[in-house]
Write a structure and sequence with these properties.
456 residues, globular, ligase, Protein-Tyrosine Phosphatase, Chain A, 3 domains
Amino acid sequence: MLDTFKKIHFIGIGGISMSGLAEIMFTQGYIVSGSDMNSSPTTTHLENLGIEIFQGHFPSNITSDIDIVVYTAAIKEDNPELIMARTLIKNILVRSEFLGWLMRTYKYPICVSGTHGKTTTTSMLSEILINANKNPTITVGGILNSIGGNIHIGGSKYFLTEACEYCNSFLDFHPKVGIILNIEEDHMDFFRDLNDIYNSFNQFVKLFPPDGYLVIPYDTINKEILLKNVKDLNIETFGFNNEANWYATDISYNETAGASFRVFHNNTLKGTISLKAPGNHNILNALSACAVSTFLGVNFDITSNSLGSFTGANQRFEIKGNIHGVTIVDDYAHHPTEISATLNVANNYKHKDLYVVFQPHTYSRTKAFLYEFAMSLSNAKNVIITDIYAAREKNTGDIHSKDIVRLMKDKGTNVIYIDDFDEIANYILSNCSSGDLVITMGAGNVNQIADILLGK
C-alpha cells in the first residue's frame, strides 16, 4: 500500500523512533516532513538530510497534498495538527500502525519483544545480521555504536525492530520471526494484571504466520496462556535448563562481568561465546539472538564473533568514564527486575564500594512496584534516590520517592533522598574514593548526573 503514496508527515518527529522511521522513508524516496515542539540535534540531523522540519504544532503544517500523517501515542486529540489532519487527510496512523504497514513490505519482519532486554537483543541481532551480510533495515530504541545511531537502512528482505507491549502497540505489527525475552508485570497504568499482559502477548503470537519462527523463554510461567490456540508455528525455547532447545553451560565471568559459555542447540554443541556485554541476563539475550540468526541461516561462527565484539547498547551498563579513580556507569534499569540484574552485574564487576543513584520512572510504576523497588535497591550498599521522573504522567500527590527511602531505611539500607542533580554529584565526590563504582539508574534524565560528574 505504501507504494501508492508519495508524501508523509510525522507529528512528533523528534522522538527516537519517529525520527528513525522518517529517515527510512526519506531514504526510500518519499517526500517527508515533520514537526516537533523543540529543535534538537535529531531534528537538525533530519533537516540536514533534506527533510522539512516545523518547530511547533500548527494547522498550517498540514496540507492537502500529504498522503499519510503519522503521530505518536504522546500526541493528544486536541493537537492542532491532528485536528487539521482529520479534516484533510484520509490516512492517519499512530506510529505502531505505520510501522506495521512498513513491515508488510519486507519478507522477513523480525520483532524483538519482552518486558526487559529489547534494545540490547535487537542491537545484538543487528551486529549479527550486518556481519553476515544480510543488509537488514533496522530500527532500535537506543543508540548503537556500530550503526552510528538508532537506524540502519538496508536493501534486503530483512526488517528488524523492537516490539513493545505498552498500549498493545505490537498488535499492529506483522512479524514473521520473533523473540519473546520475558514477560513480567509492567505498564500497570494500562494492563490490569499479569494475566492481562500474557493475553496481550498471546494475541501477538497469533500474528505470526505458519511458516514463521518464534523463540521464547523455557521457564515462561504461563505458557498455557501465552500459546493458547496457537497452531502450526515453529516455536523454540531458550534458557539455562538443558531441556531448552537453546541453552548455555560452563559459564564463567571476567573482571568486567562479561560471561563466557558454551552454547547447545537440541543437545548439540554449537560453540563458545565470550561476551563483552556484562551480566547473566545478557547470556539469555545472546541465546535468543543465536536462535533467530540460526533460523535465518547465519553461520554460528559469525554469530559468536559478532556477539563477542558487541559492547552493549547505549545506557545498558554503559561505562561513561572515570574521575579520581571512581568508575561512572549509566544504566537504563527502571523496573525492579532490571535493577536486580544491573546490581548482579555490579557484583561481578571489580570495585570497592558501590553507590547507586536511582530515579524512579513514572508515578504509576513507582506506586505499583513500591515494595519491589525498595527490596531490589536494598541489595546495594549505598543508595541515593532522586525525584520521580513524570514522563507522560501528572503528579497525583499519592506517591513520592521518599516512600521508597522510608521502606529501605526500615530494612537498614544506607539510603538518602536528594532532589538536586548538582547536589547529588557533590555528595558522590565527597563520599567516593578511588576504586569505587557509581551507577546512575533510570529511564529519565538521571544520566545527566554522569555528565555533571565527568565535567567537574
